[in-house]
Amino acid sequence: xxxxxxxxxFVFGSAxxxxxxxxxxxxxxxxxxxxxxxxxxxxHTEEKPRFxxxxxxxxxxxxxxxxxxxxxxxxxLRLVQAGFRRDEAVTIFFGVRIVFxxxxxxxxxxxxxxxxxxxxxxxxxxxxxxxxxxxxxxxxKRRSHRIRLSLADMLDLLVVSVEAGLGLDQALSRVxxxxxxxxxxxSDELRLLNLEMRAGKPRPEAxxxxxxxxxxxxxxxxxxxxxxxxxxxxxxxxxxxxYSETLRTKRRQRAEEAAAKTGVKMVFPLAICIFPAIWVVTxxxxxxxxxxxxxxxxxxxx
Length: 302
Description:
Blueprint: H1 4-24, H2 28-63, H3 69-82, H4 89-109, H5 118-163, H6 168-178, H7 184-198, H8 203-214, H9 217-232, H10 236-265, H11 267-301
């Protein structure tokens, strides 16, 4: 009894301390949010000056890079289609291209990674100069694909807004606001479209700029249809409804085409990865048995 009483007192005291600590401890979500906020503030205060210095270095390198007048127009359009609209985007891209190429050349021409090899270093220099352009083209293509997928929903909302009595400009502005969460790329493009029209640019010119910025064929066809509708005075709602049905038909046809291509695309994985394993499982035991029977017979024949 004399040993149980101190043990019970210790357990009771520990329970009281643990309960008080649990009550005074902040909620887990609050603590996590507070810690994330501290880390975010530390990251912004530490990384922002470094990031700005790095961008400044890329600008200085890009300013000194030789530029072709013929290439600048195509490159600027590709940057806009990828979502980079800043004035210095072309300069920064040239800086990224040159810095990346020089980094690859330095890695392979020195003993940092492997033995120095001038031929490989020159190949890496050319690859480093071409690879950023390929990545940029890929980014532009992916962004255009996301915009293409969002056109059907945009047209539905646009038809509802126009039939509800809104004008085309107000309908485009309203649809851009509604699509901000689901499709931010298309919402951003519609916002720029409305800003251009508010600044005094004619609607046909602003719509053509929208088609050029996105590089989507379906959106270019929609722009052409809207310009012709505005020019000839036909019903906008009826034209949008007809084009919406046409667009959905084209999307279904693209899906059927992709499904038809699946069988051809599966031939190479089947032949390279799956068929050898099946061959080993099915023919392997028979081949082993064949060797076990033929080898002794060949030895006896000798």
